[in-house]
Structure formats: structure tokens, C-alpha cells
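[Automated response] Your request has been received and processed.

Submitted sequence:
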Amino acid sequence: MTTYNYKYLIIGGGMAAASAAQSICEKCKKGDIGLISREEYLPYARPPLSKALWKGERTLEDIDLGTGNLGLEMHLGRTVTKIDAYNHKVYDDQDNEYSYLKLLLATGGTPKKIPGVDVPGIIYYRTKADYIKLKDQVDKNNSFGIIGGGFIGSEIAAAIKMYKPSAEVTMIFLEDGIGDRLFPRSLSKFLNDYYEEKGVNVHPGEMVSNITKNGEFFIVKTKSGKEFKFNTVVAGLGIKPNIELAEAANLKTQNNGIVVNRYLYTQDMDIFAAGDIVYYHNYILREDLRVEHEDVAWTTGEYAGKNMTGAGLVYDVLPYFYSDLFDYGYEAVGIIKSDMDILEDWKEPYEEGVIYYLEQGKVKGVLLWNVWEKVEDAKKLLAEPRTFKKEDLKGRI
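Generated structure:
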């Protein structure tokens, strides 16, 4: 057993961990901070894995977040197995012991698996290693099955088709339309047709019942009786937040997240949390949230890191995310769910417009579809305490 002693210790190697490390290093001296990550790679930006890398706009080298240059001690390829909060100690799978004064949990999530399917070789897309593996498959093969029609599934299907136009790309998902849980029904259905026009075979309303391997091919069967044959299967079904360490340490969890206060620490004032695992109260939206997007990972990491060094900052940042789907792009602020009360304000249907998401007259989210440089306007609108009638929002942004 090797023993390490740190003032600040981070568990996790994603964007929240990198952001926190950067904030802490601004206030501490070399040797004060350690980071433990199960990945073999230094922290990197995740969004380019399904966007810019496929377009040739970024490289694997320049998605590195520079954490390795901060002077902290990195423990890569290690998995934390236990937190002893009482004694301020952490243990990993190599029987190493780490002591801390302040601890940050930034453990992210694990991709959800296809229920009832246990066949090797399916790419549950999330990491740099997954990108490297899929890129190699796309360069060598020609038929690709994408399971899932949400955020990752829609981006990966578009990315593969743009990178290799000759590729046969098929999307299979349970919902009625692409982005069904985010977008109004009309926009989601439009995207089905749009992806078909772009050469992607779209199969909505299909549940995968079984996947087997036949030589070099995957055979995918659905409950309706359809059967598909692919060189490669990629699944994007969301993640399961990695909160087991927190639960074992008797930290409060709720709705698959670790409960934190406005300063991002748990009920243990020496243990903070950031990123996908954080369940927090947003005081602008007046909602309890757990958000799985880049901006929240980066900002919660930043605030948690600063607060670990005594800054005392209240986390009051509105959730924000963005995506690119072939020729279309969007930015979203706040809570975006298709089952909310929705107002579609199109300048040109499905080409350019603003979509408002309301609850009891209060604007809780704004989707800017091919509308740019309006994020700050959306944030100001969400911060307004008043309620709105739908007609009042027409042309607001």
C-alpha cells in the first residue's frame, strides 16, 4: 500500500474534475492537490467526441484540457473503492490510501446498457477510447446501427454520415421521433424526415429485443419482428450516475444524484460534488435539478473548486447546452422537456425559430433553433419572476 496526503483530492477525470482542478490550483501550491481517475487519459473535452472531431475541426491532441500542466498529482487508471469520511481517507483498487482535507466527487456516469443484451463489441459511446474505436470502425466498415434517438444517438448518426457519406447509417429508437423527449412533437417528426433525406435510415417506435453476433456482423432484432445486420453497433441510451461511493459513505442522494447545497458541498462540509452527479436547487428556476451537460459540468466544477479553497460562492448558473444535427444547430437554456407547455415561435418553420417551455405561465426553458447570439436574452427572460401568456412571448427573442 502506498499512502498519499493531499489538502485537496478530486475523484474523477472528466470536465468537472478538470475545471475544479484549475480553480483550486489558482489558490494552492504544488503538491496540495491530487486527482484519481479510472480513465487512462488526462482530462479532455467530451463534446467534440460526437461533433468537432468528426468534422475535422478539432484533433485528439487539442481536446486535452491542460490539466496535466497544472502541477497536481495525477493517478490515472485507478478506481476508488471506498471513502472513509470520518477519517478523511480514500482507498483505490490498488490498495492505495489517500488522505484529504477537502474532497470533490466528480465521478460522472456509466452508459446505460441495452436491456437483456450481453454481447461483446457494442460501443456504448461516451469516452475518448470509444471515439478511437468507432473512428477505426468507420474507416474500415460501412454499416452502422445507432441505438437511441436522443442527444448522443442523433449526434453520432449525423457525425458518421457527414464524415463518411457512403456509410449506411440506421437509427433505431423507442420514441416516435428524434429528440422526442426534448423537442415539440412537430419538430421531432420533422427531424425523422430530415435525417432520411440526409441518407440515414430512421426506425422510430422500435425496441431492441436481442442482439447476436454472426461472424463479423451484429444481428439486431426488434420486438416488432424487424431484423438488421450491421458491422458496428453504437448505443446512446443515457447514463447511470456514479453515486455508489457517496451512498456507501452515507451521503444524501436523491433522484440519482448527490444532494448538495448552494455552495456545492454535501451534508459533510468537507466533501463537495460537481458534474453529472450533482442534485442541486436552481434558485433562478426554483427547481431541483440534475443536469448531464458540458456547461453544468464545467461551471459546477469551477464553483466547487473555488469553494473548496474558501471562496463561498453561491452556484446560481442556468443550465445551458447545444448541439449540431447536420446543417441545423441549436442552443438551449433552462429546462427543456417535450411534455411541458410549449410555444413554438417560428420565423420559418423548422429552419429558424425560438421555442418557449412553460410551467404555469413561468418560462422555464428556451430553445434557440438556428438562432444565434441570443443566449443572454434567454437567460434574462428565465430570470424574470413574472408569468406570461403565450401571446406575450411571440417575438420576445
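Summary generated for your ticket: The radius of gyration is 22 Å. DSSP finds nine helices and 28 strands in the chain.
If you did not submit this request, please reply to this message.
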